[in-house]
Amino acid sequence: MRIVKTLPFREAVRTLKLPHLHRNLFSSPEWLEVVDKTYGIKLFVKYIEHGQQVESYIVYSVVNNFLEKKICMCSFCDYCDGYISQKEDWQIFFEAWRREYPDYRIAIRNLRDPFVRENPNFMFLSKEKFHLLDIRKDINALWKRTHDSFQHAVGQAQKSGATVRICAKNDLKRFYSLHLKLRKNKYRLFPQPYKFFDQIWETFLRQDKGFLLGVFNPAGDFIAGTIYLICANTLYYKFNTSDIGALKFRPNNLLFWEGIKIAKERRLEYIDMGSSGYDQAGLILFKNHTGAQSQDITHWGFAPPDYKFSRKIILKTFTSVCTAPWVPNFLTRLGSHVIYPYLA
Q: What is the pTM of this model?
């Protein structure tokens, strides 16, 4: 007999054998530990057990605040596919959610699970671009596969006198300073709280499951950086930032090329380049020029009858005020700690 059960995520990881839990970064215990320690969201595993074995499971967060009530797969993840052994299991999970949370909406970020797309309860909401670079060929073949403009930019960076190196923990604050300024001044968005990056450092980088790669100008100033994370056979190009005034050094191209070389040295096979909004034409073009292949991350949802969708006017107003040019950076940083838990 197949039985549906639910456990808190930490207990499930400790007591169950969950197939392919490390198949990608966003279902890994390490990533979800970072999310939990930073934002304190409620994480669960719902699973179907047969003969004391887990046949299907989903990892999800439960969001309940003054803005909305939501079941999400999964908060603060680019995507979070379920491990689903048969199409009918999605209906079982859906019905269980509806019994437990009848007035909650459901939000799903899907990359590779085909079954959720076939379930008639979920409506297509939106999509993002996703890029994955296969790096199993030798380094010369990978270089030849990049676009001429990418190669030119790397050469320009190397000739400019810029240097690149794996950074120590004391460079994380310099990375965060650039990250805050870029998010605030260019995009008028909050940066993630510094605590989030500190947790990433302790959980991943200190355990040699990733690295911060930095670019320095000839004067020794930190002008760009990328945080790469490692899960299974894949390097994740997760967070990138740069000084807007130093783009003549073409640091982002250099950072990515050096990331490829380090991934090859560590015998990794893929680079996950994450999601890009369809309106981010420049970012999509950059990823295309690396030779990466693209597909869509699709967002699916369900809302109960008469569900009151939050327009998040409070969040938008707070963000607009706290990222204004005249607001000191320390207040923007403080605001990120207040607001980010509500973005789950």
A: 0.95
